[in-house]
Write a structure and sequence with these properties.
- The chain is α/β, with parallel strands linked by helices.
- It has a domain at about 1-180 and about 215-240 and about 270-290: Rossmann fold.
- Helices cover about 45% and strands about 15% of the residues.
- A seven-stranded parallel sheet has the order 3-2-1-4-5-6-11, sandwiched between helices.
- Helix 4 packs parallel to helix 5 (about 145-165).
- Nicotinamide-adenine-dinucleotide binds next to helix 1, strand 2, helix 4 and strand 5.
């Protein structure tokens, strides 16, 4: 399998998951942007995992790697909404042109592709909307990040329809777990507390995210690769809706701090209010179930991981906070 973006958070968890649960031989293609971390792939057996440093926009390299593998699992992306609001260009390059480059190689060599995407392509929901996102919800992305992810999904769909590409797509909700960059909400707050900084909540913190453990995302992706119907989209979620304020208070109290020991900072422009996934199709058609349905337990384990792996996140922390400070966040 060729796994793109596997030096990042979810891709690295997927490769660890593959090594632990299958016999698959993996090649990683990753550009090692600020979000890629070699330490996330450290310790994996050399006879199972080869790491190639390179850009998914490099057609020659992509061609060579796609030809040499049977299945391509595409995680590589610029992934952070806040960054996309300040500097959208890399999002267009990697998420659109990079995906196009992969699609052309997959088409040329008639390989199998699984494309990783996000629930953010559907826009957001009102807090009291009884409906959740399904595979039939119209696309309505809000940010430069989510619009480029939506664009990449539409490219995959077009290559399926026009060229019979053998592909599936999954749109997953917010992931948490080990090896997530400290720019993201949960690791930022945990590592702020560990470094004596106060956590930062955007606006009133009433925005809802639907949390899923990264390992549950990995098991769902593997299930779709094994048994998903070609050309189909599957939504991945674990019924984990929580608002940001509640998550932050849980982090604070789990770490022995008063629940109100945080700062409100300026809100994200265009901030999506609520995401919520209906994963009935994945569960009923492919028999998938999350192994980590208890968010509180998963969060405690994640806090422990950041406590025990300071060497992994420390080098990114000062630079990340300096960037947020400049933005008033
Ligand atoms: P991440 O930012 O942690 O990792 C992205 C990885 O892609 C990094 O290792 C980076 O070096 C690599 N990369 C970036 N540009 C590249 C390029 N041009 N060529 C090769 N490699 C490149 O992201 P993540 O949170 O692990 O997200 C992975 C995927 O999952 C993304 O496609 C994202 O849209 C999707 N997703 C994320 C979430 C979430 O909650 N984080 C939820 C749903 C879907
Ligand atoms: O310091 C913060 N304070 C805060 O209140 C940060 C960094 C975030 N937030 C809020 C914004 C969001 O409502 O927390 C929520 C989660 O923020 P992020 O971790 O930036 O995630 P989000 O914007 O929801 O997007 C994530 O889930 C979907 C991933 O980054 C995407 O890659 C994925 O597609």
């Amino acid at each position: 399998m060729l796994v793109t973006g596997a030096a990042g958070f979810i891709g690295s968890n997927f490769v660890h998951y593959l090594v632990a649960n299958t016999d698959v031989i993996v090649t990683v293609l990753d550009k090692f942007t600020y979000a890629g971390n070699a330490a996330s792939l450290a310790g994996l057996p050399e006879n199972r995992v080869t790491v190639v440093r390179g850009d998914i926009c490099d057609a020659e390299l992509v061609d060579q790697l796609v030809r040499a593998n049977d299945v391509v699992v595409h995680y590589a992306a610029e992934s952070h909404n806040d960054n996309s609001l300040h500097d959208p260009r890399p999002f267009l390059d990697t998420n659109i042109i990079g995906t196009y480059t992969l699609l052309e190689a997959v088409r040329r060599y008639e390989k199998r592709l699984h494309h990783i995407s996000t629930d953010e392509v559907y826009g957001d929901l009102e807090l009291d909307d009884p409906n959740r996102f399904t595979e039939h919800t119209p696309y309505n992305p809000s940010s430069p990040y989510s619009s480029t992810k939506a664009g990449s999904d539409l490219l995959v769909r077009a290559w399926v329809r026009s060229f019979d590409l053998q592909a599936t797509i999954s749109n997953c909700s917010n992931n948490y777990g080990p090896r997530q960059h400290v720019e993201k909400f949960i690791p930022r707050q945990i590592t702020n507390i560990l470094t004596g900084e106060r956590p930062k909540l955007y606006g009133e913190g009433l925005n809802v995210r639907d949390w899923i453990h990264a390992d549950d995302h990995s098991s769902a992706v593997l299930r779709i690769i094994e048994a998903g119907r070609l050309g189909e989209t599957y939504l991945i979620g674990a019924d984990g809706e929580k608002n940001n304020k509640d998550v932050l208070e849980l982090i604070l109290t789990s770490m022995g701090q008063p629940a109100d020991a945080y700062d409100h900072v300026v809100d994200r422009p265009g901030h999506d209010l609520r995401y919520a996934i209906d994963s009935t199709k994945l569960r009923e058609e492919l028999g998938w179930q999350p192994a980590f349905p208890d968010f509180e337990r998963g969060l405690t384990a994640t806090i422990d991981w950041y406590r025990e792996n300071e060497a992994w996140w420390r080098p990114q922390k000062a630079e990340t906070e300096a960037k947020y400070r400049e933005q008033g966040q």
